[in-house]
Design brief:
Strand 7, helix 6 and strand 8 form a beta-alpha-beta unit. It contains 14 helices and ten strands. The chain has one domain: Alpha-Beta Barrel (TIM Barrel). An eight-stranded parallel β-sheet has the order 3-10-9-8-7-6-5-4. By secondary structure, the protein is of the alpha/beta class. Helix content is 42%, strand content 12%. The structure holds NADPH dihydro-nicotinamide-adenine-dinucleotide phosphate. NADPH dihydro-nicotinamide-adenine-dinucleotide phosphate binds next to strand 10 and helix 13. The site of NADPH dihydro-nicotinamide-adenine-dinucleotide phosphate (NDP) has 28 residues, from strand 10 and helix 13.
Length: 325
């Protein structure tokens, strides 16, 4: 496994990491969750991603129980949580000081740990002054309850605003962002954030590298495959993911992957990892076999040459235009 600094920051994360959205405490059994974490940790994955919203907190409970059982040295892994969607009541939602502090304390309790390595604002909160959130994060860092704080799906402008506020008051600025990034979702990561990697040294923990499992064989062969996109309640996701001839493009990527001796998921993940602004690619899996497959993606990284990248561009036809400065 390779490790990268989280942007300009000191902490190191494995290039591939493991997430728990929809799976831990929901779609999969606790035994499978344990198998996933063990498989990942055994090959050197050191970052496990979570959030208060995942399975209404059950995902953190499951992960906390597994970590307790495994007895891995706390210094060998990095754990995240995210604050925003804590519940339906007024003060259980958003980024007020009250909810940020309460969400952190609740996550620590569910995960059975003393501190979170990374704590993300899961979305921007237009109803809370940014100063309030930045101060709240700073308090949690001073209390030793979190080590780094960051954002998820914030605009470049919102991130810069938080950064500037932190600088103005001598507080600790956001260190990382968690955006969606995959072959079919590129604009924000490649264009909107482009200056932030250089100017503020922002690290990134990117999500949905397979576009929710689209970049695989399953939907090519059966659009109704009993997988994530066909789960009840996720119709909105299927509609979003299957836009712009996505299935046809995945089919056209298949021979490129085959020529390199890779599977489609391995190509999709290696493609994300070739972007130098990606600190870690968060993998998701419903079965250990899936994870064993995707964890091998980096072995083929040297095969992703400029010619291969161009062949992929020719299929995708979605390379975002960089503005001329
Ligand atoms: P992916 O796009 O990689 O989708 C993962 C899903 O794809 C799996 O659950 C599985 O679903 C399928 N899959 C995985 N491996 C294979 C394989 N080898 N072959 C075939 N199918 C495969 O990632 P996620 O969308 O799960 O995102 C990863 C993580 O990112 C999440 O767990 C979470 O931690 C984080 N995240 C953060 C968000 C945010 O707002 N900050 C939003 C979303 C995710 P199935 O078997 O059902 O097809």
């Amino acid at each position: 496994m390779e490790y990268k600094r989280l942007g300009k920051h000191g902490i190191q994360v494995s290039t591939l990491s493991l997430g728990s959205w929809l799976t831990f405490g929901g779609q999969i059994s606790n035994d499978v969750a344990e198998g996933l974490m063990k498989t990942a940790y055994d090959v050197g994955v050191n970052f496990f991603d979570n959030a208060e919203a995942y399975a209404h907190g059950r995902s953190e409970i499951v992960m906390g129980d597994i970590l307790k059982k495994m007895q891995w040295d706390r210094s060998t892994y990095v754990i995240s949580s995210k604050v925003y969607w804590g519940g339906d009541k007024p003060n259980q939602l958003g980024l007020s000081r009250k909810h940020v502090v309460e969400a952190c304390n609740a996550a620590l309790k569910r995960l059975q740990m003393e501190y979170l390595d990374l704590f993300f604002c899961h979305r921007p909160d237009k109803h809370t002054p940014i100063e309030e959130t930045v101060w709240a994060m700073n308090i949690l860092i001073q209390q030793g309850k979190i080590l780094y704080w960051g954002t998820s799906e914030w605009s470049a402008q919102e991130i810069m605003e938080a950064y500037s506020v932190a600088r103005q008051y001598n507080l600790i600025p956001p260190a990382m962002e968690q955006p969606q990034y995959n072959m079919f979702h590129r604009q924000r990561f490649e264009v909107e954030y482009a200056q932030l990697y250089k100017t503020i040294g922002m690290g990134t923990t990117v999500w949905s590298p397979l576009a929710s499992g689209l970049i695989s064989d399953k939907y090519i062969s059966d659009l109704n495959a009993s997988s994530r996109l066909n789960r009840p309640g996720l119709e909105w996701l299927k509609e979003t993911v299957l836009q712009n001839n996505a299935i046809e493009k995945v089919l056209a990527l298949k021979p490129i992957a085959a020529d390199l001796g890779m599977t489609l998921p391995q190509l999709g993940i290696a493609w994300c990892a070739t972007n130098p602004n990606v600190s870690t690619v968060i993998l998701g899996a419903t079965r250990v076999e899936q994870l064993e497959e995707t964890l091998k993606s980096l072995e083929s990284l040297p095969k992703i040459t400029p010619d291969v990248l161009q062949a992929i561009e020719n299929v995708l036809q979605n390379k975002p235009e960089q503005p001329e400065y």
